[in-house]
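Students often ask why we bother encoding 3D structure as a string. The short answer is that it lets us treat folding as translation between two languages. Here is a chain of 298 residues written in the first language.
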Amino acid sequence: MNVHQHKIISALIVTTITFLGLESLAVIIGLNQLSAFVTTAVYLFLFHVFWVAFVFDLHLKHTQAVSVTSARYAALVRSAIIHRFQHFFHWPYVRHFLNYFILPSVLFWAAVILLYLNPFASELKQIIAIFSTLTFAAYYWHMKEHLSANLEAHHKWLRLLGTTKLFAVYFAFAAILGFSWYYGLGKHIVFYYVLAAAFFLIHQALFSYGYHRSSLLIVNFVAAVIMGFVGTWVYSNWTYQYFTGALILLAMYNTVWGFIHHSLDRTFTTKVALEYLVMGILVVSIIFATHNFGTRII
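And here it is in the second language, the structure alphabet:
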């Protein structure tokens, strides 16, 4: 079996399990079985933890032979185990592992929350399950490509990852707004939720493009704070239509990330800035023009 066939089989396995898992969650919550819904979601999440660790281990495991000339059996076993899993204890590899895990975690729990908020909307649940599955498939394919290339970034796959990540960002913001409105959480809670989601997603994007400098944490934090304030404004002034509210946050996120990305790539120009601003304003204007502010629930 060649490398390409291995990637296809790997993608099919994770895609099938993810889709069937989300479909199961959609059916369970439709039957109003909350306990079973939570339990199943936790098991599915643990599967994704295992899958990221498995793919990570498969490509980056230590392959050095263990000498047996002067070692006793117990010492040999201990040495073999240490060599087998030593990459999990090296900070450069651990950073990549944690980075790989950010997007699947955010996307998975966002999809779970959206399914929970819409237990009887069959068509909507199918849309959530399908788009989440496709995003997972694209992301895991990118992860395999990245690991196969010994952690070297390839812009072709990064563009694909950037496109698919927008779905995860949108679902994450929709889940935060919907969950907060459903339970009547305060604005400060929404601020911290949006800030955390934006911070980790921007961090993951920076890491994917090879920007590992610790000084960028400040830039990331400032951008996340801006997103937090925008999220608070949307939460205070929008209606219960959290899917349209999330579009505002998505447009803002795309603009902020675009500015950061082009600045670091040294391709930031007045033309680029205007393109992002015009696109963001256009999206926001369309949403404002079609939104009914009179339906705000107090």
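Translate back mentally: Residues 109 and 172 are 8 Å apart (CA to CA). Keep this in mind for the problem set.
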